[in-house]
Each structure stands twice: as C-alpha cells, then as structure tokens.
Amino acid sequence: MNLTFSRDEVQDLLIAWLALGVAFTLLLERELRSALLGQVGGLTLSAVVQTLVVSLLTVGVGFLLHELAHKVVAVRFGQVAAFKADYRMLGFAIVGALIGFLFAAPGAVVHRGRITARENGLIALAGPVTNILLAVVFFVPFVVALLAGTSGILWDLARRGLQINLFLAGFNMLPFGPLDGRKVRAWSTLVFLAVAVPSILLAVGALFLIPF
C-alpha cells in the first residue's frame, strides 16, 4: 500500500484541524466570544489556551484520524484518494461558533477508481469506527478522572475526547446526504444497523449525560 500526501493535502488537513480547534474554542469560551463581539466579559489567556489545546487534541484529532482512516482504506482498495478541505464550510463553522452554534463539515476524502459497493461501504465505515475506537481510548481516563474527582486539563481532555468521538461516530452514521451512513447502508443494511444504532444512541447519551 502506497500511502502518500501531497503538499496541498497536508495544508488542507492542517488548516481544517486548526480551524476546527478555533471554532470549538469559540463555542466553549463564552467570554472570548463576548470580547470578540465587543461585549463585556471576563477573559483570561490561560483559559483560552487550555480550551484551544483541548479542542485540537479532541475534536481536531478525532476529525484528522476519521479522515485518514477513510484514506487508508481507500488506498488499500487501490483508489487514488486525498483529503480536500471545504474552506467555505470551515469559515461557516468559525462564524457559527462565534454566535453560539457549531456545524462542522470541514471537507472530505475524495477517492476515484474502480470500486465495488462493499469496498465503498468499508471506506465509509472506517471513519466512524475510528471514532468509536478513539472513544474507547478516552473512556478509561474519563472514568478514572470521574471517580477521582479530577479537574483541570486532564479532565477536560478525557470528557471532551469521549464526547466528541462518540458524537462524530453517531453523526456520521446518519443515512443522509454525503454522510458515511448513507454509503454503508447502500452496501449492507445489516452492517449499517449494527453500527449506526449503537453509535447514534451513544452519541445522544454523550451529548446529554456527559457534562458539557
């Protein structure tokens, strides 16, 4: 398997990673949004930096590995594959976060070549499965931190990493539009249901049961 990255692709990945980190930071730091909008609000540099670091290491890494999983599997099946950032949607994500909501569609791995429905389904499935595995990785420190009453950046990393990766998996398994779930369902309804149902339920649980 020959996995290569062009300069433009690396640039797109890095810009999308940074833009998502900034957008998520704006969403979480109300004082920062208030300051940027010219409103009164208390703002500390350390809080902003900590939130940015957490955002880059959770939502940013979750996004990066999700997209790289698509590419790895696509290349494994003989496809020419590369990530293409959607700069319009990245800008929309930042503007949206600035006013208090976030819809992130940073881009996608575009692949071409002869392919079967099964291979296309497996390429799509690779992203959400990667987020589920990342959620498992974050689950252990989350439980430890929760039981120990830990606070600070380690607690933020654990809960955000778990929450974001469960959400990314569940959201992307929805069978609509360009989302991965639609491609998986087109290949196999059984596989789709086996992955989508628990993923979506866990995503809903992560949003409502894990402290935001």
From TrEMBL:
The UniProt record lists the keyword Transmembrane: yes
Domain of life: Archaea
Record bears the keyword Membrane: yes
An annotated Gene Ontology molecular function: metallopeptidase activity
Signal peptide: none
InterPro entries (alphabetical): Metallopeptidase_M50B (IPR052348)
Keywords per UniProt: Hydrolase, Membrane, Metalloprotease, Protease, Transmembrane, Transmembrane helix
Residues that span the membrane, as ranges: 12-28, 40-65, 89-110, 122-155, 161-179, 191-210
PANTHER family in the record: ZINC METALLOPROTEASE MJ0611-RELATED (PTHR35864), ZINC METALLOPROTEASE YWHC-RELATED (PTHR35864:SF1)
Name this protein carries in UniProt: Metalloprotease
Lineage of origin: Archaea, Methanobacteriati, Methanobacteriota, Stenosarchaea group, Halobacteria
